[in-house]
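User: Here's a chain of 209 residues. Predict its fold as tokens.
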Amino acid sequence: MSEGTVAETAEPPTHADEPSRRPPNRRALILEAAIQLFHERGYPATSVDDIGSAVDVSGPAIYRHFSSKEEILIEAMILAADEVHQAIQATQATEGNGEPLLERYVSAYVRTAMRRSALIAVWTSEARHLSAQRRSPMSRRLRAWINDWAAVLASVRPELTKDQAHLLVTATIGMITSVATTARVDWQTQDRLTTIAMATLHAPIEQTQ
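Assistant: Prediction complete.
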């Protein structure tokens, strides 16, 4: 979280998400609009009518594509997890483990969080509004991702306990998410944020007796 440098001529991202391709259908358009509204207003304060207005359809027309507002949030969670997973999988296709793999994880998540700021913000902050039954699979998937990242960190820093590695990874993800989803960033921020994240992962941990 294949690596590549961002071209210097690239336009700086806006605070709104920049999907990698144009949503291909009405359902996808509705989902993207809902993600932006959930990010800006919060899930509870966003109505189905608000979502419909954002895509120029009536609120009831939304139900032709989604059974409920909760289903829209679930789809957003799945989309976010898929995009993060794809970014991480791409790093694993590149040779090199240990420190290089750890930095690729960080860089991939920084890029994803910057490019898809609203989606990542919804993923990390709005899941609490799902019912416990619907939230559980999302939570398991998030934990699996954090555990995978923590295992890579532990391979680089064998002095860490499992809990310590997990703590550092969780703190790093939180820091990246906070910066990428609350600030108006440009592509230069990516390198700075990656550097800070790596420093966080390498922060000294006081060993308890």
